[in-house]
Structures are given as C-alpha cells and as structure tokens.
Design a protein that fits this description.
CATH topology of the largest domain: Alpha/beta knot
Oligomer: single chain
Structural class: alpha/beta
Helix content: 25-40%
Radius of gyration: 21 Å
Shape: elongated
Number of helices: 10
Strand order of the largest sheet: 8-7-6-11-9-12-10
CATH superfamily of the largest domain: SPOUT methyltransferase, trefoil knot domain
Number of strands: 12
CATH architecture of the largest domain: 3-Layer(aba) Sandwich
Length: 262
Amino acid sequence: MVNYMEISSKDNPIVKLVSSLQSSSKARKEAGLFVIEGIRICEDAMENNVKFDKLIVTENACKKYGAKIDKLAEIAENCYIFTDSLFKKISDTDTPQGVLAVGVIPEITARIDKKGRYIALENLQDPSNLGAISRTAEALGVSGIIISGDSCDPYSPKVLRASMGTLLRVPLFVCEDVTAFICDNGLRSFACVVERDAESISEIEFADGDVMLIGNEGNGLREDTKLGAFCRVTIKMQGNAESLNAATAAAIAMWELKGRAK
C-alpha cells in the first residue's frame, strides 16, 4: 500500500519546485527533472522507463483513475495528494486532470545507428513545431531526432503536450553543434533550404546513414551548417508560395528521406 503525504500549503517546497520546473528550462537542467502532466502521458513515461521522483495527484483524480494511478504510484519515489485548488497552481493546463509526475530527465543511452535515418533540428524555437515534428518522425519510422542545444527544451510542458509523449519514445540526441555531431558519427547530412539553386529533394536518392537538417523558423539553417552539409536540398513549390512552416517542411523532408532510402 502506497502512502500519500497530503500537501495543502502553497508555500510548501514541493509546490515551488514543480512551479519552477514548469516554467524554467534552466531549472529543469539544473535539477535534472521535468514535469509530466496528465494520465496518458504519465503512463507513456512509465512504459518508457522514465523514473518518477514524485507523483502528485488529487483525491478526485484517484477516484477517477484509481487503478492507473496505483500503477504510477508503484514506481514513484514519493507520492503526494494536493487539494484541487493547490494543484491548479502547479498545473500548466487550463483544465488539469489532477495527475502529475516529476520525472528524472533520461540519460542519452541510445546510439547512432549508421543504417538509420535521422532528422536534425537547429535552433528550432516553437514548441508546437518540435512536438509536431516528433510525432511525424515516429509515424514515419525515422530512427531518431538530433536537436541543437539552442533549440526549445524537449522537456518543456508545451513541447511534451504537443508531442503527445512521442519525445519519450523516439531516440533523442541533444548536442551543442549538430554539424559536429553528424560528422563525428559518420553520417551524411542534407540541408533543407529555400534556395532556387539547391537540388530538388524529390530527385535525391537517399541512403542509410542520411540526416535531414531543418533550421530556425525565421532564419533557417546557419551558413556554416549549410556549408558543412553534403548537399543542399529544397522543396520545389508552385504558385506564389515562398516557404513552408518548419513542421510542414520537416514532414515532407522526412517522407522523402524515409521513402527513398535504399
């Protein structure tokens, strides 16, 4: 039988900890912890062996999700019951379910498979884009996501919600310099750009060990990243369209990368 500690004060250190983890990437990195909110994503995290430092629930949630919460509690170091009003203070959603876990940020244990195919993201800033790209990557069977350290935090609440738990399932490689990471692992990179003289992405024969590079929403890839790529590719467009949303471009690029791999 799991013992729950009841918390009702907004000045409790746990309230302050969770609030800081919800709002600050720096706090998450320093503590090595992140917040997982909602019954479904908590279950996803559990199934993917994420360690729970804390489980925080409300009485109403216990009544509604009983057996599911019991399973989550079994793997948590500490379990707490918050009042509904106090839970709302630490929640990042408008209509909280009353289920929240503080997870330990997983160590990167996955290894680059040179027979795999990857998407690399440089300085991507929109959490919705990162979430959407990760879901597409999983759906298409991309081998992993390489993300630069200056991109939005993959463990932020907004990204985790947008990814619907995908970032807890797809291999993730966070690095300071995507070009150096790709080179060090013996992979071949393709810079997806909006340039008329770039090769049409639909005419490229992709192979094992290839990586598609997607850049910042407003500025695209850095010049040195494009220069360091094996090839610059572009998605040819018709009409007056000049560019695509980063998540849309990534989806098309991953479709070509995956579908044409030999």
